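Q&A log
Question type: sequence-to-structure
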Amino acid sequence: MPEKSHAEVPFAFLEYRATFKEPIFEAWDERSGIVKAAYSAFREWNIGLENISGKQQPANAAEIQATFNILKGRALFNIGLGSASLFVTNPNWEEADLITKLARSGMEAVRVSTKAEIDKQLVTLAMHLKPEGREIRDITSRFVRTDALGVMGNKARAFGFSAYQEDCSWVVDSSALYPGALFLRITRTLGPSISFEEIAAGVRKDEDNLLELLELRVD
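Response status: OK
Response body:
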């Protein structure tokens, strides 16, 4: 087995999104109940009124939402007319139980206060990786046809590739934010009854498999 190279992770994010079967128009008319339920659910993490916000002049119905700022801004829980989502900056697997609890608490508050039915769940893990001692071109060039390497006329700085299944996709590209870094994005679509524990386990397996493919490791 090839030796894996260590990679630094300067930035990463995890997004969980649950889309509703139907927009929650009627429940939103009484949005104070929704906000109160979510506020109570997140009180464990010491949120206050200053941690709740909304767009003052939404351009359309898709922008109407209430946002809860948790963990000093590292986590944002959004409730909109058509979906609810949790966005976490720089997550790590030691926090898996915490992130699962945040998602479960928020979604339970949404279900109780709006009676919303979940249509599907979507989870995205994205990260920028800076490999130590290796050029990103060398890591990804083996996934590109050799006769395509000279198409641009000059030596390419980087190569990218993607793979798609019906309910999952992997994207590997050059990072637009960090020179000499890769950008990885794993996206998986799941049914409404899949538990947060199953979702977390699936995403971790996807990450492990993709890093194995790239012969990289992160600590």
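Response note: The mean pLDDT is 92.
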